[in-house]
């Protein structure tokens, strides 16, 4: 397994983790902090040396992305039937949406500028998951990606999705999923790999 394949597996794990957390939020109104925090931090980690560093560093990224790695292994292995269909749909939608985003350089530039603003704002709070930080990321998603013709259609319990703090978390995690999808593509990932390189992806995830 090459370093590129290893880092692709890390990015894909983050995509699937974001997808599953969105599903959890939409259905129950909540998601585990320990699985959400690394994704939120990844959005604010702009200048990293490796995929490992984006998700907590050499010693922590495996634990931080354990949920996404498990779901990705199920998806590309023999246990695909065990994967929540909504999680799989969100993951594929995130990859598709990121592919669409590439055609809008002005929007990409706007997102980059907003991330820098939110990064500076986050320095005033001890917690990257402070409601103001989450709201800032959610607002960025709503002002940019939500305006594209293709959108990630989130389905769940309206009692939760209509609550502003839940809606903000959903949008923030979707942005984290886009960040992971972009990283995967920058590392050489292609959408056709998800079908025709399943064995190689599974090997990298197992490693």
From TrEMBL:
Entries under Gene3D superfamilies matching the protein: HflD-like
Keywords: Cell inner membrane, Cell membrane, Cytoplasm, Membrane
GO cellular component, one term: plasma membrane
Source superkingdom: Bacteria
Family annotation (Pfam families): DUF489 (PF04356)
Membrane topology, record value: Peripheral membrane protein
Subcellular location: Cytoplasm; Cell inner membrane
Family from the record: Belongs to the HflD family.
Designated name of the protein: High frequency lysogenization protein HflD homolog
Lineage, opening ranks: Bacteria, Pseudomonadati, Pseudomonadota, Gammaproteobacteria, Oceanospirillales
Gene: hflD
